Fold each of these.
Amino acid sequence: LIHGPNLNLLGAREAEHYGAKTLRDIEALVKGAAEKLGYSVVAFQSNHEGALVDFLQKESPNASGIIINPGALTHYSYALHDALQDAKLPAVEVHLSDISSREPWRQVSVTSPACIAQVSGKKETGYLEALEVLHKRLSA
Ligand code: DQA
């Protein structure tokens, strides 16, 4: 479970877009739901693109799937796209806000082509939907 830049500030960031939950709340929500399905979750957040790439390279060999909210890196990080692709795992991209109805630059995702699905605009419940998508894929 990976979060990109500024998502450490969830709870204090524009609640109309991102909801009221903190990053810890979201991590606990995903961990609880994933454990019921038999998965364990390694959660990581960084404000640094390279740290996210390093984490993907280090953890992917031991992982079954990825849930990622890349934050603003969604819109321009080819490095993150490539790291997701090189991970060779099913990945689901999540956005708390509905990026398709915000500024034009936010409507573009350069990372989603490396993902099997994108869930956008469902606040924290989007992560549970992402988990379901991953679970379906992994049990298929
Ligand atoms: C976000 C949307 C991005 O455009 C923004 O930069 C974020 C959060 C979301 O969850 O809605 O940091 O990924």
Note: The longest helix spans residues 125-139.
Amino acid sequence: MPDDYTPATIADVRRLRDTLEQQGKKLVFTNGCFDLLHAGHVRYLEQARALGDAMVVALNSDQSVRQLKGPDRPLNTECDRAEVMSALRAVDAVVVFDDERATSLIEAIRPHVYAKGGDYTVESLNREERTALEAAGTQISILPLVPGRSTTNTINKMHATDCATASNGLLRLAVLGSGAGSNLRAIIAAIADNKLKAEIAITLSDQAESGFREIARTAGLPALFVDGGDNPRRLSEAAQKEIFEHLERARIDVVVLVGFMRILKEPVISAYAGRIVNVHPSLLPKFKGANAPQLAIDDGELETGCTVHLVTAEIDAGRILAQAKVPVNIGDTAESLHARIKVEEHKLLPQVLNEWRERGLPVRGAGRP
Ligand code: GRF
């Protein structure tokens, strides 16, 4: 018996698909991490298999599970996950893939049916995957998830005792950004200098390529990417849910927004109420929204600054936690002024987070500020 199970190749699966097609039969395709199999998975896979005559399951590789779910996952290696998966009655072949999305596999395999679990709709599927499915003429089937059973639930139950009793006293942060990432760099530096007793559990961006993501990767942090959809200021419903799931999985205490350009809504806003902070380049309530440094110049302000505040459903309107002032100099451009504001942000944000931790707030699942 070999030590490690060998999954099927794409060529094997493509052959299976072509053979089925010649016989007028259908290949079903589904994909996921399937890290800790539970009855919910088994029932879902049985239902998916019933949509055709054979089924291939594409498993996210270990590296892509880390990208999608954070550094503590997967619990089981890709070889072990593939071996367990292949033993199920509903599963005819298992392949392992390395990307965050299954797009290239869909293009190569051209399955007859694509099954997806959960409260997605065809419209809220990932855009790239959906385009590939439509191009392959694949029928898309959304199957309901079995309520109450999920890998995250199981892991959270296992962690519950640890969290209540053995917290290491560090705030678990999720940092979300879309831009240059200088505030992320400042948080990383404050942690390294022991000025901020926190750990960055995940970073998340809506921009696949950004200074922010580069800084996260260089620091060896999980650099998650969520495709927010077409509107650059909004997050699609699927993206809102995806972000929520990332935060839950990583057992986040505080969500820190540093130039995250899309508006967070439900379910994150309610679930993390009082635990989401944003840094904004003006002395709020003045100059809410975009272009705050330019607006301060246009209004002839002699002084502006930055604000760290709680995030609520209303933009830049939550409780102010701290502010720092910055003079507006003669001849300032939006860029020169913003650069000086950022210098203050880099001090203020880590300081506020650390003071927050010292006051004993917030604690995962317990009292909220
Ligand atoms: C900061 O100026 C922050 O106030 C605003 O977005 C900017 C992000 O800058 N919300 P960076 O990406 O951290 O350099």
Note: The mean pLDDT is 89.
Amino acid sequence: MASSTISPSSPAKSKLIVFDTTLRDGEQSPGVTLNTEEKIEIARQLSRLGVDIIEAGFPVASPGDFNAVQRIAREVGGLMEGRDGLEPMVICGLARSVKKDIQTAYDAVKDAPRHRIHVFLATSDIHLEFKLKISRDECKARIREMVGFAKSLCADIEFSPEDAGRSDRAFLCEALAVAIEAGATTLNIPDTVGYNTPHEYGALIAHLKQNTPGADSVIFSTHCHNDLGLATANTLAGISNGARQVEVTINGIGERAGNTSLEEVVMNIHTHPDTYPVHHTINTRLLFSTSRMVEDLSGMVVQANKAIVGRNAFLHESGIHQDGVLKNKTTYEIIRPEDVGVTTGNLALGKHSGRHAFKTKLEELGYGGAALSDAQFQTAFAKFKDLADSKKAGVTDGDMHALVADIRSTSLSGPASAQPDDATAEESVSEEPAAVQYTLKQLHVFTGVNVMPTATVTLHDAHRGVDLTDVAVAKNGPIEATYSAIQRIIGRDIELLNFTVSATSVGQDTQGKVSVRIAQSGSSSSSVVSSATASPKPEEQLLTSYGAVPKFSGVACNVDIITASAKAYLTAVNRMVSHDSADNRASHKQRNVEI
Ligand code: KIV
Ligand code: ZN
């Protein structure tokens, strides 16, 4: 890890613990459902990035969630790639203040070399009265019992008083003191609804540190939501007032307007080393590639003007600015783009570039080490050569990012993490990548003005060893026609939940990068169905959006956007088909057990 990418460590500075909750709070973003393979891929990247703790999920929410957290604990918990000088990443599971949740969270994370249980219970009067329907005394009693129970299983316990930002301060101090007595080692202070101002949130952290009995023995943590656009400012105010852990997500994804964004907090500390009394151990050069990975896999497109990782974050449009930057970069740049993994002005690769140049470029863009497997690298290189042949002006960094997204998307397989609610964690299906069933053999699209768009599609079905062709006419354009033809060939009704197309570079020979997210038709409306019973206990009502129906994503890039659209769709379709056959294997296995 290059030392220039890490904020200077000095005895006067405390280490800031970066707790990433992209896979838990981030996954609660409307429309986002990551499957297990995608979660593992993101967890690996977060480990390389130097994150200290990840909240890998909410294990009790569904067998799929349990399985994903357990696999992350087992497969990522011990990884040391890119973590020179660091310990293995702590794997954390979330639990409500309910014994079953806590036990399930512990079972999911316990195989990681370093693990944590995160227990939460609301403390604001609004939540106590209307959601939990319990008194303040009952709230404290439950914290004592449940944090104590968690402590009997695991040494590292985090407690969160949900809606702390609107809780009565005196009561909050009492509740936190109980959590400390019961064994909590980290106290996380959520501004659950993104209500606080930076001044107020900073003062809250300072107050709690000063007035909670036992506060000296624990770490205080921030957890801010972005409803008023203040999540990063509030988090930084928390740090200035004594918080030493921050809970963040990549790209700031999360419930409603999202959570605090990891990259913004880290780069604020990086840019103002004298302002904040902390140092971090994040490899900032991996921020951009990590952001792209989360964007691609979550389907949550990063706004172009987003700080640090937006496409425009380092572009200078006006002549005056361009002139200044050419004379001296610091005239208009406060962050060196390369410090966050953005390369500017570098020569594009061309058709004469060999493997070595290709690999070096990948490394420069944050895809070094084990970011791509050997097989993925070989496929990427072959695709790069094809692309370089067609792009006379050269393959740009944007093309390279899109190429990696395409390769990863095609090779990520396996069922979605949201598995049928009646499967137990132990019965969850095996997730070895299944062979791709459908490949695009031919696509002919007829479209234009005052014509009915028509698509003729031929797919090769590898399972049956046949080519299948269909023609579809659609009034809403060539993509609808193409997708209809594919649905007819494979005999499924598919709902398109998300479709985005973006250019990978500028110029007429740019590629289109298409991301899609699909679900079996008629199933998406149930994606917010609670897994609780018809009249759930108040504390069981939270499980909305968890255990959701499987959704499948695909990414592809091509100079022809209709081809990219067809390929991205097919990637998602193959994953859906592979998930369903894995489900069949699981129910078959279950029947065998019964027999
Ligand atoms: O925002 C919140 O309160 C949370 C808790 C579960 C920590 O995400
Ligand atoms: Zn939250």
Note: The chain has 16 helices and 16 strands.
